[in-house]
């Protein structure tokens, strides 16, 4: 806690604080001829009487000193030096608050006369400008207005939902690929942040909003694990009693849950991508040439196609086993027959 009396800060302290401020482009002006930047961002204005509506830059190492000086100096408005037109003497004038400008500079006998900014003009800081600044920001393509032009603020724009600023353009947020999830949603200023799904979680599709999801627990669901989960797909459970179970019940080919279990089992086997695409082509009856796709995507598509076919065609299991033989995946066929007692 600082203890101090309300005396003006020493000149040496003021000079130290002013040297700590970043250089202001165009802040040096001839006597009596203020520049926009100098008038709007003079050290006195920034140190002593901050506008509470103004967003400040990040505090630096000298922030406590600046805060102390600000509290000491805010009992009166900031000032500037001006040459009296009549006497040619230098006088100290009060600056005008945000939303106004200097209509008449002060003299030895009269204080500064401030006037409100006209429409479409503004001043953001305490200043000694002789006219307000024009609201010159225009929202561009894929931008929305978030701050209307008013007496104290220029118009402000940001990228619309689903886009972020990159250089001078609004670019669509990136999607996290299968196997990765969103750890931080994109914003108007930042792109989506993705991370590979950790053990025990998965993401099966591309998304700019969805995080990784936890694998389901088959035991808690009262089912058996058919296909262990990985970073690309969930753990697949089944109520079908497979070989090796303590149950004496044997699955029948027409058992719907067992059919789905067999489809899941085959679709997520560790099949080389080339043979997996060939299997997909045979079952879908599609041309050989296909778009480049990852193994995880092809597996998901194959499972979706077979599940849809199962609902329309009672012989889908027979077709699947035949397709495995046609693609010389006889070892997968054998494992499926043994596992599901076909």
Automatic annotation (TrEMBL):
Pfam families cross-referenced by the UniProt entry: TNFR_c6 (PF00020)
Residue intervals of the TNFR-Cys domain: 116-157
Full protein name: TNF receptor superfamily member 6b
GO BP annotation list: apoptotic process
Keyword Methyltransferase: no
Superkingdom in the source lineage: Eukaryota
Keyword field contains Glycoprotein: yes
Key words of the record: Apoptosis, Disulfide bond, Glycoprotein, Repeat, Secreted, Signal
InterPro entries in UniProt: TNFR/NGFR_Cys_rich_reg, TNFRSF6B_N, TNFRSF_decoy_receptor
Cystine residue pairs: 117-132, 139-157
SMART domains listed in its UniProt record: TNFR
GO CC entries: extracellular region
Primary residence: secreted
Record Gene3D superfamilies: Tumor Necrosis Factor Receptor, subunit A, domain 2 (2.10.50.10)
